[in-house]
Write a structure and sequence with these properties.
The protein is an alpha+beta fold. Helices cover 27% and strands 28% of the residues. The longest helix has 23 residues.
C-alpha cells in the first residue's frame, strides 16, 4: 500500500515511539456526482474536469488524496482523504448538496458527500464466528479470538534497529503490538522462503509507492489483548516519524480473528521437518 506525507501529526497517538511508529485516524469521505443524460452523440464528460471542480470547491482547504472509486454513465464516485478527522465536516459542508456546472453542458451536476464508512470487523463478527464454528475449542490458542492478521505493513518500518537490511523482523513486530497486551506468537510468512514454495504463494508485495510491504500475524495471550488491538486499530492508519521529524503514513488492512496463526505455525513446523528429511535423504541416497 502506498505511503503519503503527513503534514499535521496532532491527531497521531503513540504505538511504539522507540521504532517511530504511531497510529493516525483515517479521515476520508465519499463524494458522488450525478451525471446528466448525454443527448449529443460523441459528447462525454471529463472525469478529470469533475475532479478539478471538486478540488476548487473545498479551497482554501486541500485533499491529501482524491481518486475515482467508480465511474458509470449515471454517476462518478470519488474517495477523498484529508489531513485530519477534524476537517472532514468542513469538507462535507462545502460539498454535500452543492452543484457543479461544466463548460459545454447546460445541465447542473448534483454533488453528494458523506463520511467514508470503514470496513472493519466488529466484536459481534468475531464472537459469532467462533461461537458458530463447531470444530473450534475456545480453550485452545488459535481457535478463539486471539489473532490479528495484518497486510500492507512497510518492511523497513519493522526492520531490526541499526540494521542495513530492510527485511522485517519478528522481534520488531512483537515489540510494536505489545502495546496492546502480552503476545503468545508472531509470524511473518515472507521470512520463510520454503513456505512460499509449499503454498505456491508470493508473500512479497510492492505498493504503488515502491515500498516493499509484508503481512504478519500477531497472537495475543489473552482475549483482552486481542480486543484492545482491534479497538485501537479500528479507523487508523500506520504512521512513521523519522528522527528528522518528518512523517509518512500508510493504510494497513486488518483481517483479524480468522484462526490462521496456528495453521501458519504448523506449516512452518512442517516446512522445517520436510527440509530436515530432505537433507537426510540427500546425505543417505
Amino acid at each position: 500500500m502506498s505511503t503519503t506525507i503527513v503534514h499535521d501529526t496532532t491527531e497521531a497517538v503513540k504505538l511504539c515511539p522507540a521504532l517511530g511508529l504511531y497510529l493516525k485516524p483515517i479521515a476520508k469521505l465519499t463524494v458522488s456526482v450525478a451525471l446528466p443524460q448525454l443527448k449529443q452523440p460523441g459528447k462525454s464528460i471529463s472525469n478529470w474536469e469533475v475532479m478539478e471542480r471538486l478540488k476548487a470547491m473545498v479551497q482554501p482547504d486541500l485533499f491529501s488524496a482524491l481518486r475515482i472509486s467508480k465511474s458509470t454513465m449515471e454517476f462518478i464516485r470519488f474517495e477523498g482523504e484529508v489531513e485530519n478527522r477534524g476537517v472532514v465536516r468542513t469538507f462535507l459542508s462545502k460539498l454535500d448538496g452543492k452543484t457543479i456546472k461544466l463548460s459545454g453542458f447546460t445541465d447542473i451536476l448534483k454533488v453528494r458527500a458523506a463520511e467514508y464508512k470503514m470496513d472493519f470487523p466488529t466484536r459481534h463478527d468475531w464472537d459469532s464466528f467462533f461461537r458458530d464454528a463447531k470444530d473450534m475449542n475456545e480453550t485452545v490458542p488459535g481457535e478463539r479470538p486471539d489473532t490479528i492478521h495484518l497486510e500492507g505493513l512497510p518492511c523497513k518500518w519493522f526492520a531490526a534497529k541499526d540494521s542495513a537490511s530492510e527485511k522485517p523482523c519478528e522481534a520488531a513486530l512483537q515489540q510494536v503490538f505489545e502495546a496492546f497486551g502480552k503476545i503468545r506468537n508472531v509470524d511473518i510468512p515472507m521470512l520463510d522462503p520454503y513456505r512460499e514454495e509449499m503454498m505456491d504463494k508470493n508473500f512479497h508485495t510492492f505498493s504503488f509507492g515502491g515500498h516493499l510491504n509484508f503481512e504478519g500475524y500477531v497472537q495475543f495471550q489473552e482475549y483482552i489483548g486481542f480486543v484492545k488491538a482491534m479497538d485501537g486499530l479500528r479507523g487508523m492508519k500506520l504512521m512513521y516519524r523519522g528522527e528528522d521529524g518528518k512523517a509518512v503514513a500508510c493504510n494497513m488492512k486488518v483481517l483479524s480473528f480468522i484462526p490462521s496463526t496456528s495453521v501458519l505455525l504448523m506449516q512452518r513446523f512442517t516446512t522445517l521437518v520436510l527440509f530436515q528429511l530432505s537433507s537426510v535423504t540427500s546425505l543417505n541416497p
